[in-house]
Amino acid sequence: MTDAFDIFGAPEDRGVLIVVDHASNHVPSDIELGIAAELLEEHIAYDIGVANIARYMSESPGYLAILGTVSRLVVDLNRFSDESGVIPEHSDGVILTGNAISDEQRKARLERFFHPYHVRVAELIEDMDPAMVLFLHSFTPQLRTNGTEAKRPWEIGVLYNEYETASRLAIQFLEQENLVVGDQQPYSGKDLHATMKRQAEDIGKAYTEIEIRQDLVTDETGQRRFAEIMLRMCEKIRTGLA
Q: CB-based contacts of 241: which residues, under 8 Å, 6+ apart?
């Protein structure tokens, strides 16, 4: 284990790489965010449920998962390194006083977590030449703020930027699973796409990004259910892309 990532599964040429930016709510002991400890159990700190989904998926041959190992409140791996939000000072109405840091401290935090993670993702993609990359996230059923978007009825969302082929196949499959599917919901991949763009779209790799509603994956039963759905979805996409 490093400060930046964990890897599960065995690499396989033309397999599937699962990338989970917000897998952990861990805050290293030498970093003080300035928030109540109980907030680290909420959606602002990590994508609830997806770490175990990725781990379960990685038990299948041909599936490798890389998981970020620090909270998105420490560093948001799904941002560009020059974005202010890469080290957030607020999240869904919560002020992170400890993240008001100097440029030197900011650079050090990126060097410790952000850059090693993205370098390793890029290395895995180059070494594996995966048939597709699955970017896996989860979303809260309801935000504290932004009343126009407070309640989110979708059970699963499919996000994409310029490349749509794999995501269209994903939407088709997930609708056949009788899930309530959001096409670019609960937010758009055209607005929030740093990792998918950097690690797939810009280098011509097939990808889709999936967002699962967190209340469906808070326990092992839900996590295993969606791991199986994701495995079937990926196999359908691989077949469709062949």
A: 131, 132, 165, 166, 169, 206
